[in-house]
Amino acid sequence: MKALRNYLNKIKPNFEEGGKLSMFRSVFDGFETFLFVSNNTSKSGVHIHDSIDSKRIMTVVIIALIPALLFGMYNTGYQHNLAIGVDPGFCMTFLFGFLAVLPKIIVSYVVGLGIEFIVAQWKKEEIQEGFLVSGMLIPMIVPIDTPLWMIAVATAFAVIFAKEVFGGTGYNIFNVALVTRAFLFFAYPAAMSGDQVFVRTTSTFGIGGGQIVDAFSGATPLGQIGIAGKEMIGSFHTVDVLGNPLTTWDTFLGLIPGSIAETSVLAILIGAAILIFTGVASWKTMMSCFIGGAFMAAIFNLAGTTVPMTVSPIDHLLLGGFAFGAVFMATDPVTSARTETGKYIYGFLIGVMAIVIRVLNPGYPEGMMLAILLMNVFAPLIDYYVVESNVKHRLKRAVK
Amino acid sequence: MKDENIAYFCDKIIKTLYSCVMANVIKIKKGLDINLKGKASDVLLTGKESDSYAIIPDSYDGIVPKVIAKVGDSVKAGTVLMIDKNRPEIKFVSPVSGEVTAINRGEKRKVLSIVVKPDAEPGYVEFGKKSLSSLKTEEIKEAILEAGIWPFIKQRPYDIVASPSETPRDIFVSTYYSAPLAPNFDFIVQGQEADFQTGLDALSKLTSGKVYVGIKKNSSLKVNGVETVEVEGPHPAGNVGVLINHTKPVNKGETVWTINPDDVIIIGRLFNKGIADFSRLVVITGSETTERGYIKTIAGCTIKSLIEGKILEGTAHFRIISGNVLTGHKVGKEDYLYAYDNQITVIPEGDDVNEFVGWAMPGFSKYSMSHTYLTWLFGKNKEYVIDARIRGGKRAMIMSNEYDSVFPMNILPEYLLKAIIAFDIDKMENLGVYEVAPEDFALCEFVDTSKIEIQKIVRNGLNLLYKEMN
């Protein structure tokens, strides 16, 4: 390590102002701080600092995402095998999913980080690590058959227009990964919904070719619920890709079609436990989000005039992107409410809105994305009222 | 008529119960005790003789120094060296008798220090013993100002040296030093209880309200004639700002005064002995020291006299702090103890450490309030050596609830900080800027993921606000 450090010290002058390679200064800085913890010492204020920094926060979030990601990879292979009616064993199943998902991760990171590097260099700032998480989230929330070029276009759009124009990491109003998803959803609706995109039926890098079995249908459970007619109230139940009925346990474990990493509530809850224990994400937002969703679903159950209205609260929370959104998206500290009281309200309203959109709008079988983006807008307003109540309290005290 | 009586009695009972149960105990939950290595035990050590003493204008906030003394003047302990240009009644005096040997100036002729070389025999300006009971408020004020002890009294709002022309609503003293490795006031006050009591008596005559004294739970300290408040909890529970916020917060238009208990003793000595005796106990702490305990010295002594022979030899990379690790000032061996400080902390500097991909490592020895490093496995009793590295790049505010979790006041620190950065005076007032001092934000700065220089921002904001308002 010492040799590496010495080498970095040797080439460092080239990258400083006036050096031959000063145009790559931020890239060099980025790599230097990536390799070695900066040994700048404090100049003012406190003399010691907590070891936490934004790199560590992002690392922890990535670790929390890994269970869902690995499960998503396996499930991609699993659904594919169901579709073509083969069982090549665990390893090949995972390998298929891995090869199918990996290009998406690479494209998302290359495009997003590339833009970040350019902007950092242009603004003469340090490279910020916010995109490490966004870049991982993006491939996890798209259907498996999303073309790579679409992901590239959508990522570029989101990073530039949802983040950099607002000032970069920490200043964005909308969750960057969700803006990517929304861009894809509205720009290429055919590639983002329906029953053709959530299960890969073709081969990947030459692996897993085969004929689709007759019973196959790639509709997600929420998709099935969305198109079920009124006459099916009472007799409706969700099915897997081969038409077998799904149990609550199936939807909890997540071997069902859906966006890549959103299906397994179990894997997501493992991630949630990591986030809450390390103190990186707020349990208040997560909990109130689930409560809000369950509350709204229960109200719709009382009405029960269409199939989506009759879906039980438990099923609503387990299906689609609800859990993934509640755990990884709603808790994004930058776009979420920042006051503690505000987090309860913010999470609750996301839960409510997600179910309202799911149930009442036949065009959007999944409401989580829109609910979170909508509440991103309202988060500052929620905080405003929480702050105002603190101000009022102070004014009242002064009058006494 | 009858109903009114019942209502009156009910009200009385509730108020009495309230004052019994609530008023005099503060339990703090939010906060953080950073368990640093290098705690001092309650023992007296002998320091070296200090070959010079200095007053450092930078110790004090809210004053513009105007030097009165000239190089070569012969002075006694209590002779005026410097006054505040804007409030000339505030005097700064020599802590010892001797000769003024230097007035050090920096850029734009800013006064850095006024140095006095001490005589072999101590000599004091005689102010005369005084009995408090016969003195009026103005006379007490005059006596403290005359003896140069006034600068120890600070005021909120602005956390600056108090204005003698004002009468404070209340005066607050916290005897609970809760910062990392901080001294134990119970030990400091031993043998000086009478002076401490006299100091408090003098203070009670300066306010139209009360003197509130915060006392650590289970402390043996006994005081009379003041409002005592039992305080319990992790740092910053002992900060005087927390005491104020939990007893009687500062509202717009009100002024309260604060003073360190060590300096209350100095006021007490003035009336009991008739001299300005600035001697105090300074605690030597920190992982890089070899001998830890209390040294009896005089305010403004050299750092060298306190730590020579008590620092680990052979290590060049250490940082000496006048004060504690959260609010102190970085000093060199040739520098002087800052005016308000009663602590020296020596920690590793850390500028020679190159940690390979540290952000990705499990981090078994890295201290963090969060559980993002695996140090939590070792429990709360493990002691840490933390060096002065910032450990990360400066970022925009990303995480929420970090500041709140170490800020036990009814104030929203993040929003107040943003208002200060934007210098939106209305918002600052509304969010409680008059109640805070930079030290209240010290732990926020420690835990901050984004490594923002919060205390500096608050200090500059308060200075600017003071200028704007006066």
Notes on the structure:
The complex is a heterodimer of chains A (400) and B (470). By secondary structure, chain A is mostly helical. Chain A folds into two domains: 54-191, no CATH class; 221-238 and 246-390, no CATH class. Chain A has helices spanning 2-15, 25-35, 54-84, 90-122, 130-140, 148-163, 176-187, 189-192, 221-227, 248-253, 265-278, 283-303, 307-310, 313-318, 322-329, 340-360, 368-399; one strand at residues 36-37. In chain A, helix 3 (54-84) packs antiparallel against helix 11 (265-278) and helix 6 (148-163) crosses helix 7. The termini of chain A are far apart. The mean pLDDT of chain A is 90. Chain B has four domains: 53-118, Beta Barrel (OB fold (Dihydrolipoamide Acetyltransferase, E2P)), CATH 2.40.50; 132-273, Rossmann fold, CATH 3.40.50; 280-360, Ubiquitin-like (UB roll), CATH 3.10.20; 404-469, no CATH class. A seven-stranded mixed beta sheet of chain B has the order 1-14-13-12-15-10-11. Chain B is globular and about 65 Å long. Chain B is α/β, with parallel strands linked by helices. The relative contact order of chain B is 0.15. The mean pLDDT of chain B is 91. The termini of chain B are far apart. Chain B has helices spanning 2-23, 137-146, 185-188, 193-204, 240-247, 261-273, 303-307, 413-422, 425-431, 442-447, 454-469; strands at residues 25-27, 44-45, 53-55, 65-67, 74-75, 80-84, 91-93, 98-105, 111-118, 154-156, 160-161, 171-174, 211-216, 227-232, 256-258, 279-285, 293-298, 318-322, 329-331, 343-348, 355-356. Chain B contains eleven helices and 21 strands. Strand 1 (36-37) of chain A pairs antiparallel with strand 21 (355-356) of chain B, so a sheet runs across the interface.
